[in-house]
Design brief:
This protein is an alpha/beta fold. The protein has 16 helices and 15 strands. Keywords: RNA-binding.
Length: about 450
Amino acid sequence: MAARPNKSSFYAKKKYNFKDNRNKLQPDMKGFLCTCNYGEKDCQKEAINLLREYSEEKEMSTKTVFVTVGTTKFDELINTVTDHRTLEALKRNGYTSMILQIGNGTFVLEPSDVLEITSYKFKPDIGPDMIKSDLIISHGGAGSIMQALDYGKPLLVVINEKLMNNHQYELAEKLCEEKYLYYTTCENLWNCIENLDFSLLNSKPSEDISSNVEESTEIMDSLDTELESLSKKDNVDWNKFSPSVTGVGNCLFISTTVEDPCDLVYKILEDLEKTKVQKTKFLLRMLPISVTCKANLVSISSACTNLLPKYFSTEPTTFAIMFNHRYNNSVKRDEVIKELANQVVSFGQHTVDLSGGAKLTIIVEVVKSVCCLSVVRDYGHFCKFNLLSVCGRPEKRTAEGENGDGDNSSSPKVKKQEENEDENCEEENTESKPEEEVTEISENH
């Protein structure tokens, strides 16, 4: 008689025979590297809630104006709407960015310190730009007017007075009488933006039944197309912030779809510094990560070749390199520092600052087989991006401290948490690197 199988050994083997479907930290990602002393799950919740809070505030505070001239040449409108007086009027009304469709014009876009401005000549479909705008400024063409009204956006029509037998007045005046839009000329554009209340405008004019049927058919077709795209997972932004497993204790990674993680972290740090209100209990440090790659010198060098020019191709500045490693001894700190320093110096007369006051800091965080990279500003000023230290430090940082006893450190509780965090991860800091060694790297160029 055959022996009965041992059930306990069967289930014991089955216990380890499973597939881990969790998202893992891997190359070609961007997001936020977060550290804590304990309570990883609570830290993860705090990090995601904090990021959502500030990203939603940023989206709500952004207002866009879209300017279109169709296929015509109407440089007078483009020059007027980009005039400093007009831009200031838009800014006072809460607008933060502008999109210009300049058609056949010869307008040359110049940088503005009032609004963020982008421009293009033509697109197959300007509908998406109209949809995401909060105000549309259009020429007097009937097609552009009706398209803007279709999307239910506040509309300001600017009449081109130089056209012969100008018929634009008739359509604009009729629709203005029924409170569907406002119209003006280039001369009075800034005054209209300053004083008109666009919330008083009515919605799109009513149409006959046949037009409504055609419109309903078009809507159903567009909905079917949208549902098809939503059925493809690759085309859907399911979650703006999602956790990824690092395989390292007390070290978390939150992947993101936002364009620039650094801007979001700056906003958080600046608000914490201003309010001195502690918003996290478990989350200690949050580093923005612009790109991840494999943890080897060749991959790190290649990733930095694309990352560094954005920050170091301009005027000379001071920089430092922060190198930390966790569960990885194959990537050598000195080799990485030398390679990145060579790349930075090749862009211009940039100098190393190891005093903690470098304007730009290159973050190199090696986590097992993945390297996380970014370039941040004010790394020393924001206490190495330690959220608790930013909240707890004194407002005035003098040589002797506020009490004159020379102690200008954070509160004992924050200081103890910082010390515990340093014990929980294997870190090497380039600020402890002898200055002669970094200087030698620079002198070779």
